[in-house]
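Hi there,

I know you've been waiting on this one. I reran it after we fixed the sequence typo, so this is the corrected version. Both the input and the resulting structure follow.
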Amino acid sequence: MTLASKITLSRLLLVPVFAVLAIYYGHSVADGAPREWLRWAALAAFITAAASDGIDGWIARRFNQRSKFGAVIDPIADKSLLLTAFITLTAVDWGPNDWHLPLWLTALVIVRDCIILGGIVVLHYTGHEVKIAPQWSGKICTVAQMVALGWVMLKWVPFSPIYPCMVAAACTVWSGVDYVRQGLRILHESVHTSI
């Protein structure tokens, strides 16, 4: 196993650590005695996991450590971290006055990912070669989603998290449409080449 893959696996292992710390912090908030060290520990676990995504990719490219295992486990680790963070920060209040992510944003993120995954499955089972390559819209979407998550975790209380959530929602819809169009283009091109 390559160093890049080991870093990716460590990111996957940090996901439950983040979730447990985040949930315990939320419970301390609900009890009226927030234990801030739990929040900072959860944030540190999340940032470490998120940063490892760039590190493992750089190592894989720089030292020619690309592998089929890495190509499969990397997006699984990415999505596990993001979806766990979205679900946890929606279910648990991190501050006063329902300081959490709105349910509609988490639902939108999950629906987008399900549509993309469903499209990949359809393309695969209809005999199309599926090359999973990130789009710019997807990268911008991920950054916008991370900002919304960070907004809640850092508790920038003077400004409601609804504003970064609305930006993240717009980027999520944009990237979802972009991926659907890419899938339809693959289907359309294969129909024309087979005629």
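Quick highlight: The mean pLDDT is 89.

Best,
R. S.
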